[in-house]
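Deliverable D2.4 — example input (structure tokens):
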């Protein structure tokens, strides 16, 4: 038995072309390209050039190229640029052999002829294509095998017996930055991040796979590998897991808002699409853009399910009516059905039979075109929808709202960052009942008798927390959460014991808080953050505290650990070391904070700040 060590490593490059057009192939260089190149492959969004001891990856802005190819005069209000951005990276092995033996493996049908310009020296004929390329002895005892498909690019390192894995190190030339963690390398480029990840390696022993840990490490300014315990007399294979950052492939303008995943690792995105041209799939619920009132042709919600590597669409659909919509939050249940929470100005947003509220409630016009490109001339209602696992059916859909603005955080002092208008979250309990945290300006927003706060607290906005059944036909309970000035709930978290926490921002000095809370009074500034635990039926306030300083502060997310501790993430403008407690790592004056509180919200256990 030959004894060698195999390292299989991913390098995923993605583009707008989310449906492959046949397998990618390595075409040999017979003089048509520079002599430093041995083979070239085209994959979505990039060209891969094989060099001796290295690989050059030329990424390009595929959506811009597609837009250019499909438009003669550009989109309305835009100028058509003839320039397509590129960013090249070179994966280079340190101390590589300058003359490794290179061979194409797995010859593919057909041949290629190149007649390039009037320089006959660059003419080449009968160039063959291969499925793989192998560079033998790229380092002493190390072979490099390159593989391409229409979804990306990988490489294997094959180490002969006796070769120290620590001797194999590499670097990325041309990167804007490289971040090395044990489980991944993130390569920064002007066209987005490229991420290389390693899961467990394994050895085949008597037909069984014995897992072996494998991780990245830094070696000076280069990158190497660390393997766990293994038998050096047997091959080792590292079976890569791919993570991705990809374009949607939309030929219409398209802005991302939210994303989620399901139990099998499939990925979902929610975005705004400004017209026909977002890639939809055959049989999708809504394949045509319904129009709108914002920029270009107005916005519809665009929803896409990607495969686990993000390289192609499982399904993709629009969701919207005749005016504008924006998605705020997504979540998937155990049946792979997608729940969407968003806002709309469409009187004809699609609803389903028996919906809790099948009629648009309206309100004052809200124009967000200067920031988000959306316009709500008919006012804004919340919407919640449930799509089938294949994206072909709208299983449930309802409006939620009153006679004023619902779902859009436009309150002065609380709308602080770009896109703060579209905060809020959807969450599911164990029975697929739907929980919504958001904000409303409607004093007649539907709530329920016996809820903790059945009436509007005052000011321009109140937070609101709602629970509907899975079919979106019944409001199980609903409550305002706010004081006499502006308030908003942005996030909610539910554990297996139905403990329900909400977090947000407030300008109210009389926000409901509980005795013994960490901060029982408004701390000052233009806003404070808050976190509160509501009873599982929405009828009571279990615990509640302000969280902030005499400067601007807001809480955007709360989370729970297995021991019941509460974690907060938010933003602050406090000077110095305020909010820093028991945290060895901290940046005084940092604009973001993290905090760990006990379950009763009475004690700050850890607090730190970071960022600018």
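Example output (designed residues):
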């Amino acid at each position: 038995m030959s004894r060698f060590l195999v390292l299989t490593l991913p390098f995923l490059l993605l583009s707008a072309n989310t449906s492959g057009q046949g397998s990618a192939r390595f075409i040999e260089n017979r003089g048509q390209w520079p002599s430093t190149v041995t083979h070239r492959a085209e994959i979505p969004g990039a060209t891969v050039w094989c060099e001796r001891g290295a690989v050059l990856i030329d990424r390009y802005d595929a959506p811009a190229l597609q837009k250019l190819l499909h438009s003669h005069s550009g989109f309305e209000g835009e100028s058509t640029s003839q320039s397509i951005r590129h960013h090249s990276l070179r994966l280079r092995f340190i101390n590589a052999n300058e003359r490794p033996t290179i061979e194409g493996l797995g010859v593919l049908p057909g041949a290629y002829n190149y007649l390039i310009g009037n320089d006959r020296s660059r003419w080449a004929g009968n160039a063959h294509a291969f499925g793989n390329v192998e560079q033998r002895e790229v380092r002493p005892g190390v072979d490099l095998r390159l593989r391409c498909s229409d979804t990306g690019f990988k490489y294997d390192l094959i180490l002969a017996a006796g070769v120290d894995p620590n001797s194999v190190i590499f670097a990325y030339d041309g990167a804007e930055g490289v971040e090395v963690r044990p489980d991944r390398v993130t390569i920064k480029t002007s066209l987005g991040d490229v991420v290389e990840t390693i899961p467990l390696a394994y050895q085949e022993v008597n037909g069984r796979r014995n897992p072996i840990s494998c991780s990245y490490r830094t070696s000076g300014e280069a990158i190497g590998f660390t393997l766990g315990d293994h038998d050096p007399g047997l091959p080792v294979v590292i079976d890569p897991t791919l993570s991705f950052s990809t374009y949607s492939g939309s030929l219409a303008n398209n802005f991302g808002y939210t994303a989620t995943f399901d139990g099998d690792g499939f990925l979902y995105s929610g975005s705004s699409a400004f017209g026909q041209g977002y890639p939809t799939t055959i049989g999708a619920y809504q394949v045509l853009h319904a129009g709108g009132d914002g920029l270009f042709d107005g916005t519809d919600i665009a929803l896409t399910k990607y495969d686990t590597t993000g390289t192609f669409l499982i399904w993709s659909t629009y969701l919207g009516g005749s005016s504008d919509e924006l998605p705020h939050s997504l979540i998937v249940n155990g049946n792979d059905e997608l729940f969407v929470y968003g806002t709309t100005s469409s009187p004809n947003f699609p609803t389903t039979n028996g919906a809790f509220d099948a009629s648009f409630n309206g309100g004052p016009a809200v124009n967000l075109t200067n920031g988000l490109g959306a316009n709500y001339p008919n006012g804004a209602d919340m919407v919640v929808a449930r799509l089938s696992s294949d994206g072909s059916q709208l299983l449930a859909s309802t409006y939620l709202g009153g006679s004023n603005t619902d779902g859009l955080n436009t309150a002065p002092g609380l709308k602080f960052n770009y896109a703060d208008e579209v905060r809020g979250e959807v969450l599911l309990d164990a029975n697929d009942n739907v929980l919504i945290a958001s904000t409303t300006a409607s004093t007649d927003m539907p709530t329920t008798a016996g809820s903790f706060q059945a009436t509007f607290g005052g000011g321009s906005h109140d937070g609101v927390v709602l629970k509907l059944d899975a079919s979106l036909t019944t409001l199980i309970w609903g409550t305002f959460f706010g004081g006499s000035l502006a308030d908003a709930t942005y996030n909610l978290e539910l554990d297996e014991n139905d403990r329900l926490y909400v977090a947000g921002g407030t300008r109210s000095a009389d926000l409901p808080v509980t005795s013994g809370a960490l901060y029982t009074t408004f701390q000052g500034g233009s806003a404070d953050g808050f976190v509160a635990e509501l009873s599982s039926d929405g009828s009571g306030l279990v615990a509640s505290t302000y969280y902030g300083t005499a400067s601007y502060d807001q809480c955007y997310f709360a989370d729970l650990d297995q021991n019941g501790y509460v974690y907060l993430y938010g933003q602050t403008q406090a000077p110095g070391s305020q909010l820093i407690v028991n945290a060895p790592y901290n940046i005084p004056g940092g604009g973001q904070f993290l905090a760990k509180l006990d379950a009763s919200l009475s004690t700050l256990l850890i607090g730190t700040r970071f960022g600018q």
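The CA atoms of residues 199 and 240 lie 6 Å apart.
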